[in-house]
Specification:
Layout: E1 9-10, H1 16-25, H2 37-45, E2 48-54, E3 59-64, H3 67-77, H4 83-92, H5 98-120, H6 123-132, E4 136-137
Antiparallel strand pairs: 1-4, 2-3
Helix pairs in contact: 3-4, 4-5
């Protein structure tokens, strides 16, 4: 058996230079799990089944079984100022085809995934994780 004594720091207590090192070292701390699950659940709820996506290759595959039902759910669940609502309204009024609606959904869902991943890997997203989870660090900026 051995005893180790060390001083631990919360993120805000670290020197700025060490904070920077921690942010760089743990850039994937928010994305090392299935971070997209909540987005997939939201999409499933409105009738969009996301089957696959790859942000690096800008690739997404999704399925919409009933476009008009999906458009109706979007108009009930999303604000009128959102792109999802606007494209759903266009389908409902006959301004765009079903194919154009589905193409727009591909783009919009991809944008939601990209924006979420961008935030989770941003300095602000990482800091938020450290603070919200009371993460403790050594003086070198290593998570204890």
């Amino acid at each position: 058996m051995r005893t180790i004594e060390t001083t631990l720091y919360y993120f805000d207590e670290l020197p700025k230079e060490t904070q920077r090192k921690a942010l760089d070292k743990y850039v994937d701390i928010n994305t090392s799990y299935d971070w997209w699950d909540c987005i997939f659940q939201d999409m499933d709820y409105i009738g969009i089944n996301v089957q696959h996506f790859n942000l690096y290759y800008k690739d997404i595959s999704l399925r919409v079984e009933h476009s008009l039902d999906t458009a109706s759910k979007i108009m009930k669940e999303y604000g009128k100022d959102t792109e999802f609502y606007k494209v759903a309204m266009k389908l409902a009024t006959g301004s765009i085809s079903e194919k154009a609606f589905i193409d727009a959904l591909h783009r919009l869902v991809f944008e939601v995934l990209r924006a979420d991943e961008d935030y989770l890997t941003s300095d602000q997203g990482i800091k938020e994780y450290f603070i919200d989870n009371d993460v403790e660090f050594t003086k070198e900026g290593i998570i204890w």
